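Here is one such protein, fold included:

. . .
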Amino acid sequence: MAEPIINLTRGMPPPDVFPTEDLIRCAEAALRRDPDVLLQYGRSPGYGPLREWLGQRYGVGADQILIGNSSLEIFSFATQTLLRPGDRAFVESPSYDRTIALLRRAGAQVVGIPLEGEGGLNVAVLEEELKRGVPALMYLITDFHNPTGTTTSLEKRGRLADLAEEHGFWIVEDSPYRLLRYGGQDVPTLWSLAPARVLHVSSFSKLLAPGLRLGYVVGPVEAIATLAEWAVDSYIGPVLPTQGMVYEYCRQGLLQPNIERLKEVYRPRLQTALSALQRHLPRATWTHPEGGFYIGVTLPEGNDMTSLRAQAEEVGLKLSDGRGFFAHAADGDRFLRIPFCSVTPEEIEEGMMRLARLL
């Protein structure tokens, strides 16, 4: 009898954490209160009340907030408005595979800056790369990085902020996991350190449900206005009923209790994954995240993604191809992203046992 499949490919919430009943009630309340706006075309940077709510949360005016159909789409708009074909764009190495794809689609020369240890980007390599050419933008995931789970230290954030201001390049700080911290202390955002050079992007995908496709960006007024003009020309208006639902959810004070509930779900899964790695893969190395969805694992020498993924399929284990997270694919031949969010502690333990047998 075939072993049950354990899927370690995608970092998505398990369906049983969705606040479905609350969202149903909030959707009805929003549509009854404001149907003329939520069901009509809206040439806008997003639903006004939600922009104001987010502005209050970040301590800025609504004119510094753009809400769109997912943070990934907002990043796509940023590549179209901040980049020209042939421009350099820096990413962490490894980085989120879809943003690498979007940068290349925009015609950028993508340069990977390696991560080091648990503190994030190798600043010395970044400074050397800046001598070869300043990027139009740099994309970073500073809190609970995808795919490694690391968090950029305050010291490195300060240096990154200084370099962006000195050389005049944009930083896109992608922060969908920041509020899912299971231990340790928060680190100030890059946006708070260099608000004139940083676009701070986040979403409700990890906090409520990915299917809402609701992302937002905080930034300087002029940059937000440029992005908003591009967005309106692209789709006239975003999906306003979803934004109305989420505004009602936040207005009722439901968001923070839901975040605390998610932490209680994900914290033991992270602890189980770290413990299982220690027991079953002692020759590998891995990160020690304090939050988010992922652990980054470097497999022992002698392994490679092509053969490992094929063997894993035979024992009912689905793995991501680590090469996709690197600007230079060969750098990821022994890299494995472990998403602990969508699998139970029992599945994590069994998955690590199967992986250990293969290695």
Remarks:
- The radius of gyration is 21 Å.
- Residues 83 and 203 are 23 Å apart (CA to CA).
